[in-house]
């Protein structure tokens, strides 16, 4: 019944006991060994079957995701607004169900936004400032109407707003591959996104250079390491925004509300802070070199720095008044222009500060 090979294997396993066994014992040992082989084969077969089933399941699921992704892309290309919004929502749902698709979905959304959003008008520094002055004067005169063709009335289309909301949702961006530069550094530069609502958005590393974000709602958003060169943030809601290490040179922050914002290590050189609110903002080591902080108190142009943390802030070239300095929280590390540092009130304030800890 048993092959010589099987008998030899059982004999080798049994060792010296094989010679002491009678015929019945040897037959029983061979039977038990054969049963063990059958059981091992059954277990291996079941394992292989499970692996095969899992492999087929993954293929089926991947096919379903691919099919859903394709349908979402078709919706994004529709001529109807509500269909495009449905495509954005479909992509967001795909990422929730299959987080490994976040990278591809982000690539699609970035391309969609750049195609659908209008380009921001590029203005020279002088013309941009003249435009903001006209806007401020009109506001002070309480003009209720604005020309219908004015850019001030332009808001992001509903599909663009939906795509921006999905793309910058923290749970969405957390699944994007960190090594994919176009996604971790979302390129929204030069787009007209006035009045966009990105409250609480994850905008770390985002590129918004020369974009128009005037009157945008970015309350509580995270713009760590963002690129905001020449970005128009006129009258934007920026309360509690984290701008740590952001590049904001020549940014337009006229009448922007930066209350309780974190601007640590921010580069604000040549930025326009006309009537900006910086109450309770953290400005540790911020660079205001050559920034515009108006002194014309009679025209209501002062930036509000009440209780702002000015630790290590460079204000040597900023146009700023004694009252603004004293309303904030400068310390011995705050870099002031020589005439400002020599002012009796400022000197008295700094002298009254406790000595820096070693």
TrEMBL record:
The keyword DNA repair does not apply. The chain crosses the membrane at residues 36-55. Keywords: Membrane, Transmembrane, Transmembrane helix. It comes from the Bacteria. Pfam families: Pentapeptide. The keyword Transmembrane applies. This is Pentapeptide repeat-containing protein.
């Amino acid at each position: 019944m048993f092959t010589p090979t099987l008998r030899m294997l059982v004999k080798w396993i049994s060792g010296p006991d094989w010679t002491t066994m009678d015929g019945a014992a040897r037959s029983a040992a061979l039977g038990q060994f054969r049963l063990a082989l059958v059981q091992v084969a059954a277990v291996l077969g079941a394992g292989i079957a499970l692996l095969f089933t899992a492999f087929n399941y993954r293929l089926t699921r991947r096919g379903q995701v691919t099919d859903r992704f394709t349908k979402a892309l078709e919706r994004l290309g529709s001529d109807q607004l509500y269909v495009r919004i449905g495509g954005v929502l479909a992509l967001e749902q795909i990422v929730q169900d299959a987080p490994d698709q976040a990278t591809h979905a982000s690539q699609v959304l970035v391309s969609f936004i750049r195609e659908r959003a209008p380009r921001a008008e590029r203005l020279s520094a002088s013309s941009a400032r003249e435009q903001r002055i006209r806007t401020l004067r009109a506001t002070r005169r309480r003009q209720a109407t604005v020309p219908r063709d004015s850019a001030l009335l332009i808001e992001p289309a509903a599909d663009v707003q939906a795509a921006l909301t999905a793309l910058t949702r923290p749970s969405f961006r957390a699944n994007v591959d960190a090594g994919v530069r176009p996604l971790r550094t979302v390129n929204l530069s030069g787009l007209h996104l006035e009045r966009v609502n990105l409250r609480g958005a994850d905008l770390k590393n985002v590129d918004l250079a020369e974009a128009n974000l005037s009157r945008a709602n970015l309350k509580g958003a995270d713009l760590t390491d963002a690129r905001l060169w020449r970005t128009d943030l006129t009258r934007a809601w920026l309360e509690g925004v984290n701008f740590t290490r952001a590049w904001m040179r020549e940014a337009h922050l006229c009448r922007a509300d930066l209350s309780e914002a974190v601007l640590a290590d921010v580069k604000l050189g040549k930025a326009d802070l006309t009537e900006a609110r910086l109450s309770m903002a953290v400005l540790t080591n911020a660079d205001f070199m050559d920034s515009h902080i108006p002194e014309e108190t009679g025209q209501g142009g002062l930036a509000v720095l009440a209780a702002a943390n000015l630790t290590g802030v460079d204000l040597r070239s900023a146009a700023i008044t004694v009252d603004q300095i004293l309303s904030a929280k400068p310390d011995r590390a705050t870099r002031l222009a020589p005439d400002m540092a020599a002012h009796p009130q400022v000197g008295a304030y700094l002298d009254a500060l406790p000595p820096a800890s070693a």
